[in-house]
What does this fold into?
Amino acid sequence: MTDRIAASYDAIAEQYTEAVADELDGKPLDRALLDCFLEQLPPGAGVCDVGCGPGQVAAYLHEHGTRPVMGVDLSGAMVAVAARAHPAIRFEQATMTELPMPDGTLAGITAFYSIIHLDDAELRKAAAEFARVLAPSGRALVAFHGGDQVVHADRWFDQPVDLDGYHRPPELVASVLEQAGLDVDATVTRRPYPGELPTTRCYLMASRPA
It folds into this structure.
């Protein structure tokens, strides 16, 4: 699955970047949640945006926080675009089911719509990785599409792709995070903003017990 996801995002990297590079400007709730996430991080460690795409969330964290930020993404083309657009931030190609950092070394993780291409087994692996790399009291902010369906795309931005998008109820994702050893502290949902896909947007704030 990872090969076809990477190939799909490699194919649309430039067009996708153009579409989302400034998306947070029009998403006040997303910005507020990112600010809340930053405010609650434990001291002394860095933050990773997992499934960073072209780096727009990582850039927000870098601009509004006080600690090192990095981004990882499965797509090499996305990593290259992000590194070009945000040279002050380190970006690395990696999968969220095998994160490239030691145990307990991150103060925080964000994953904005990057878990949506994971099947159930991969989602459990990713949640376990989030728990593994977070330091005690470290936090995760995970955003995804709500619902109970799998949506397939074979064309996007007029390019051939092969992507499955898993829309999940927030209580299901919360259960997966809790089974991995994280405490889910808050669940937020919102209606789509104008121009977004017509899905409920879900956000889970979770933490690793101290």
